[in-house]
Write a structure and sequence with these properties.
The chain contains eleven helices and 15 strands. The radius of gyration is 21 Å and the shape is globular. The protein has two domains: 268 residues, Spore Coat Polysaccharide Biosynthesis Protein SpsA, Chain A, CATH 3.90.550.10; 85 residues, no CATH class. It is 32% helix and 23% strand. The protein is α/β, with parallel strands linked by helices and 359 residues long.
Length: 359
């Protein structure tokens, strides 16, 4: 299943409510991230579900025209990844009573297809043969403050059926978006991995753990599932009273059945303009001065900058470096690359000032 929600506030003004991050052509090859995610899911085999907001339905259908309408789960209102995954689990169990779910995010970029498919398939194999909720972890390459971390402990005993599966480690807990100093401490232990938000588990087991650790959320999701057909007024009313919450907080941080599968994959959530810059450089798209240029842009004696010119005019950099410059029809944003994690502050300030037309 593919989670396709959110708007990517750290990518303003490129990512907005009307063209959110996962529907934007942000991948180095110019395709949308949701297209990448859907193709990633189809390589695993089995039915693919996509969960998104009702007001993004037409855009998702346009991005994935082959997606069957009954595989598109439209949330009447955002309730976080916990309820979204619960609804997907109910749907998966209706498709097959012993369904194993693999959950992907629509806004991640994972260019190594073979390694990614192997890691996701290995997680699914473990999930099918154990009573564990599995999260895929990636070895940190830098002390990123915009990512969550999961600590890994002892190795899970390997069932005989899984003699060729990758090692699985017990989870010792999660740390969400630490400070730079704390992130450096975490990666120095060698036991902490980036928590990618890529999950695998039996649908039935997930619903059981949600009922155990977040019973009100579980009950409300069940009420919504049986209230009426998705898209109906009855479903919208029932969905609207579900308490919001991320799956990490509702289940994973509370359950004793969580395990980490360390994976050697190239992964980024492309959550900031620095991520976009670095992924483009890794794909060989930088010029001789390590500038990455999108659209009509000219750089002179400038270096290590990311320029996204989509506002219908030329953007010129002269004698500068280490900048993110993003130009759209409605807004221009200029920021040091080292401070792009703070772009969400702009969104908060615009909301405070009532500038909804820019959001």
């Amino acid at each position: 299943m593919v989670l396709a929600g959110g708007s990517g506030t750290r990518l303003w003004p490129r990512s907005r409510s009307r063209l959110p991050k996962h529907l934007s052509p942000l991948a180095p090859d110019g395709r949308s991230l949701i297209r990448h995610a859907y193709d990633r899911a189809t390589r695993l085999g089995g039915p693919v579900l996509v969960v998104t907001a009702s007001d993004q339905a037409d855009q998702v259908r346009s991005a994935i025209p082959e997606l069957d309408s009954d595989r598109l789960l439209l949330e009447p209102a955002p309730r976080g990844t916990g309820p979204a995954l619960a609804w997907a689990a109910w749907t998966a169990r209706q498709i097959h009573p012993r369904a194993v779910m693999v959950s992907l995010h629509a806004d991640h970029y994972m260019p190594d297809q073979e390694a990614t498919t192997g890691a996701l398939g290995g997680a699914a194999e473990w999930a099918a043969n154990t009573e564990l909720l599995i999260t895929i972890g990636v070895q940190p390459t830098r002390p990123a403050t915009g990512f969550g971390y999961v600590e890994a402990g002892e190795e899970v005993p390997r069932p005989r059926l899984l003699k060729d599966a990758p090692p699985l480690l017990r989870s010792r807990g999660f740390v969400e978006k630490p400070s730079a100093e704390r992130a450096q401490q975490l990666i120095s232990t060698g036991r902490h991995f980036w928590n990618t938000g890529l999950f695998a588990w039996k649908a039935e087991l997930f619903l059981e753990e949600l009922l155990l650790h977040a019973p009100e959320v579980a009950a409300r999701v069940e009420d919504a599932v049986f209230s009426g057909a998705p898209g109906s007024a009855e479903f919208a009313r029932a969905w609207g009273v579900i308490p919001s919450g991320a799956v990490d907080r509702l289940v994973l941080e509370r359950s004793s059945k969580v395990a980490v599968l360390p994976a050697q994959v190239s992964w980024t959530d492309l959550g900031s303009f620095l991520d976009l810059y670095q992924s483009a450089i890794a794909a060989g798209e930088g010029d001789g001065s390590q500038n990455v240029l999108r659209g009509d842009a000219l750089v002179i004696e400038s270096e290590r900058s990311y320029v996204d010119s989509g506002g219908g005019r030329m953007v010129v950099l002269l004698g500068v470096g280490d900048l993110a410059v993003v130009d759209t029809e409605e807004a221009l944003m200029v920021c040091p690359l080292e401070r792009v994690q703070e772009v969400s502050r702009v969104v908060a300030e615009l909301r405070e000032r009532g500038r909804s037309e820019l959001l």
